[in-house]
Design brief:
- The protein is an alpha+beta fold.
- Among the domains are: 205 residues, no CATH class; 96 residues, Regulator of K+ conductance, C-terminal domain (Alpha-Beta Plaits), CATH 3.30.70.1450; 79 residues, Alpha-Beta Plaits, CATH 3.30.70.
- Strands 3-2-4-1-5 form a five-stranded antiparallel β-sheet. Strands 8-7-9-6-10 form a five-stranded antiparallel β-sheet.
- A hairpin with a 2-residue loop joins strand 7 and strand 8.
- The longest helix is centred in the last third of the chain and has 28 residues.
């Protein structure tokens, strides 16, 4: 083993450890790993930057804009509600939801689909007294099924496609992956409507848990008429840095002030609403001129009126809030909202809100101004799952243009009239020229953190290949699976890709496994397409953890799920996908 190979492997192992421990955002961790390889001279500047011109990465960027235009058009808004039906037979409704969701995510980014329809499904369930935990994991899984059906269904497919083109191969055709993923997806839907449905918990949502336990963490105090606090700011009154309580709202003459700025001056008869540890309420009782309302019947619904409303948001994979407290991130001033409570792993965290270190998947109950959802709906820090009460006015002409453009793009790529990148460029150009999408809007739709992660991961994949590290790892793979032949090698590659996907990210998993798989195929003298299909399916088929795939994370808190729920329901589904994939690959690409 040469020094370069050893150095690359050490950097990659360090990167994986940092990703698993969530030391920083995934895109930052992968960028730092690439930077180390560049600065050490292992990678030349040209090779390090190749990921930023990769055809697959650029196509992903363009498809973000197309997906954003479709979401904005409003053509999908009533689809799920209609497909769910009456709800009299829950298993039938489950199938009716999963089929169109799979079809949609075959052509659109699945993250906005799940963000858009999570509140719709929850509302539908609430109206019929059905637990949303029976429907939200299936919603996420359905979009994963659909994402593996086409070349453009998920960014992972496009990244592998881009790598193949760089190596002088043809790449995937539009529906090539459907040879494997369509049977696997159909079996997956049958499984979810039978065995999976039984394994899914019948549990309260985070919203219901918040509401039922509101007496445990909401408290109220009033500024007395002759209080020495009158005229003092929140900070001067000592109300900003209480040990266990967090001031989220001030009610003055019927008006609600949300969030509460530290420079606001108190007045007599102000009602102060706190969240946090009620065991520390003695702090308030010791403040002269403040009357604590004991035995308050305050509920969540009492906190909102015309100007203030409650919003649920899920902390995203790429959030800048991860590993920071609300105080450290200056949440109140940056987002113009106050955190009422934090829900994690089906439980409200019983700590002072301002001192909770946030993690990906945490569900935040926020008290915010009415326009909060509209202002932060495209933020990379969290996924908003509360329905936006004032939806944008839909322009019918723009909706028609969007649908026609999407169909044109799919047709041009499917019939090989244009390469996928060219078809996406044409689609985005049409959307810009017709003013269906503005440049400002396009910037909001593009997930730059995802693109940075893909581009940097490609550079690391190149380092694996160029230094010979991929060949070394391939030798070990071939030796380990020698008795099992090609089929054993494909099973090993699929399994390792699945593990990487569950603990890091799907794109990083695919990029790391591509050069290794190519080297294995060369040593076994077989068609590498068999391995690339296995990687594409395995990298997306992430069912066993909430952190492995964005859509699983989005429904984690809103569905009231625990980590173990994904293991119980997801592991059998992972096994089903492994068996179906390997069997079909064996007959189509090996025998």
């Amino acid at each position: 083993m040469s020094f370069e190979i050893g150095f690359v492997l050490v950097v990659i192992i360090g990167m994986l450890v940092c990703l698993v421990k969530e030391i920083a955002r995934p895109d930052f961790v992968v960028f730092c790993a690439l930077a180390v390889l560049l600065l050490s001279g292992v990678l030349s500047p040209t090779d390090a930057l190749r990921g930023f011109s990769n055809e697959g990465m650029l196509t992903v960027a363009l498809l973000f804009i197309v997906a954003g235009a479709v979401k904005q058009s409003g053509v999908l808004n009533s689809l799920v509600t209609k497909s769910l039906g009456s709800g009299k037979n829950q298993r039938t409704s489950l199938i009716q939801m999963m089929v169109p969701m799979s079809a949609l995510s075959a052509f659109l980014n699945n993250t906005p689909i799940v963000v858009m329809f999570t509140p719709v499904v929850r509302k539908w369930c609430k109206e019929r007294n059905i637990s949303p935990s029976k429907f939200l994991i299936p919603l996420s899984y359905a979009t994963i099924f659909g994402g593996t059906l086409t070349l453009i269904g998920t960014s992972t497919n496009l990244v592998i496609h881009g790598f193949m083109l760089e190596h002088g191969m043809e790449g995937f055709s539009m529906f090539q992956l459907a040879i494997v993923s369509l049977p696997a997806g159909l079996i997956g839907i049958i499984y979810m409507s039978t065995i999976g449905y039984k394994l899914l918990p019948d549990r309260k949502t985070s919203e219901e848990s918040f509401d039922e336990s509101s007496r445990e963490y909401l408290s109220e105090a009033s500024v007395e008429t002759d209080s020495p606090l009158s005229g003092k700011t929140i900070e001067e009154a000592g109300l900003k840095n209480l040990e266990g309580l967090y001031l989220i709202e001030v009610i003055r003459n019927g008006d609600r002030i949300v969030p509460v700025p530290s420079f606001m001056k108190l007045k007599a008869n102000d009602r102060l609403i706190f969240t946090g540890l009620l065991s520390t309420i003695v702090e308030l009782q010791n403040i002269k001129g403040l009357r604590v309302e004991t035995g308050t019947s305050l509920k969540l619904e009492n906190l909102q009126n015309g100007s203030a409303k409650l919003v649920e948001a899920v902390v995203s994979h790429q959030s800048s809030l991860i590993q920071q407290t609300a105080i450290e991130s200056k949440f109140r001033s940056n987002y113009d909202a106050g955190i009422v409570a934090v829900h994690r792993n089906d439980e409200r965290i019983n700590n002072k809100v301002g001192e909770i270190k946030l993690k990906a998947g945490d569900t935040l109950l926020l008290l915010a101004n009415k326009d909060f959802s509209n202002r932060w709906s495209n933020s990379g820090d969290f996924y908003l799952v509360s329905p936006i009460e004032d939806p944008e006015i839909v322009n019918p002409k723009k909706s028609i243009i969007t649908v026609i453009t999407l169909l044109l793009m799919i047709s041009l790529a499917a019939f090989s009239i244009l390469p996928m990148l060219n078809a996406a460029v044409l689609a985005v150009t049409i959307l810009f020229l017709t003013k269906t999408v503005t440049f400002e809007g396009a910037r909001k739709y593009i997930q730059f953190d995802v693109l940075l992660l893909i581009a940097c991961a490609i550079g690391i994949g190149i380092a694996l290949e160029e230094t010979g590290a991929a060949t070394l790892l391939a030798n070990h793979f071939v030796q380990i699976t020698e008795g099992a032949g090609v089929l054993g090698a494909i099973i090993a590659v699929y399994f390792l890709t699945t593990v990487f996907t569950e603990i890091i990210t799907n794109n990083a998993a695919a990029v790391l496994m591509f050069p290794i798989s190519l080297a294995i195929a060369d040593q076994l003298a077989v068609d590498p397409m068999a391995f690339f299909v296995a990687i594409a399916i395995a990298a997306s088929a992430s069912f066993s953890t909430p952190i492995g795939y964005q859509t699983n994370l989005i429904v984690y808190g809103p569905g009231g799920y625990r980590f173990s729920d994904y293991l119980k329901v997801g592991i059998p589904l992972n096994i089903i996908y492994l068996i179906v994939t390997v069997v079909i690959i064996n007959f189509v690409w090996i025998i």
